[in-house]
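Structure ticket #2291
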Amino acid sequence: MAIKLFAAIDVGSYEIGMKIFELSGRKGVKEIDFVRRRVEIGTDTYNTGKISYARMDELCDILNGFNEIMKGYKVDSYRAYGTSAIRETDNTRVVLDQIRLRTGLEVSVLSNSEQRFLDYKSVALKTKDFDRIIDRGTAFVDIGGGSTQVSLFSDSHLISTVNLRLGILRLKEKVNSLSPKSSAYESLLSELVDNELVLFKELYLRNLDTQNLIVVDDYLTYIQKWISQRNDGKKPAGEFDNYITVGQYVRFFDILKKMPQEQLARELGLPRENATLLMPSAVLIKQLCEVTCAERLFLTGVTLSDGIAYDYAESNKFIESTHDFELDIISSARNTANRYRGSARYEETLEKCALAIFDSMKKMHGLGKRERLLLQLSSLLQDCGAFISLMSPAECSYSIIMGTEIIGISHMERKIIASVVMYSYPEDIDFEGVDKEEFSTDSYLTMAKLTAIFRIAVGMVKNPEKEYREVKAQIKDKELVITIDSDMDMHLERGLFNERTGYFEEVFGIHPIIKTKSRGGVFRNHV
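Resolution: structure written out below.
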């Protein structure tokens, strides 16, 4: 495979960064240049809801400079992504259009879960012994300007992901708005962070043994270097690479909070303008160490640009992943279902039915592996709303899914899953009432097809206690024949199945029927 030059641009909340990579089948992903410029567009967004003209001018000047660098390298391809500072503006579309017109660059906006997944992917692919690290209790902490994402692992399984409004730029602006004395700055920051972490600890950390923190942050590498220079960088022999102990970090923090900002920048080798965000970052990490009772801080040294490059390289077959990211997504959904007391047997049976139908209809629905995953996640989360209300589980399920971060799933994909689940209750919800403007044409069609499949799958699983040994589906003439291998009585399912077939027939133009197979014979039901 030929060598390709690729540029990854991160339009962040307080910094715009670009990395140039050399991609090849033999060497994989190799960074050859990294440029970054400070511009706090998040300050405008978080305070006023819009990016000002002055910030736009500054942003476009930087991006034009990046454009010239790319031309100098003769870059073959690039990806440019905006994060929370652009995502949360009231005029996102105007901002993106202005960037395109004034720089020629197409910038896309990442949803929070997409952004965090790219960071997570780069760490998983770049960190030595990553799978061995998360085999122990581990919190993956991704610190951004607008928020911080914490993903919790136990026995190599992703347990849960939560987004906290504890971005370091947001924290800085909040404390500055209180006009604190310099002596009170650190204590105010600590109090703000503590207030957010109390509920997080109660809801997510109970009975979880967390030994490691893997941190994505702009400052820990400077701190590690500082600790090493002071001969405090020793670690036990035979342990993992590239970490510092929590004790080392706490000793650094005790020195940090007494140090003037200018001296701090000199000591760490930080650009002076970046030092203003070090204290919010340091406080946040220290408080997370305390609430998790972690022992080690693993330093990744990655940025979003690394995640963009690794994702592009994997998609274009320059590298192969050794970590199963899809399994992480499924594991996260399963644990969300468990949190809302979902029935594991019901989820397993529903998943079996939905995927059997999907797999038998590949030529008819034209959907792929990704859409199959969305259907699988819908099966896992279908009954979560019943934990809130048995009278209106459809609406409650929708709200739970839309309010839950599933790492690796975009906002639109989450909306598709939530809609598929909600419209799987046709006796309660009128599918024709869906707001089509919320979806692009492609996403609407995906949602409609998955809903049609999912409705009849739900109709096949009326009693969660019934065991299905096997579910098969195949198209014969103008019928979709679904065969359930079970010794259980299926009169209820066969009798109520016709309530679920109308929309399926409308979408696909074929008639579904159930055949039940048991050791005593075969029974057929035409509906």
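Closing remark: Residues 53-73 form the longest helix (21 residues).
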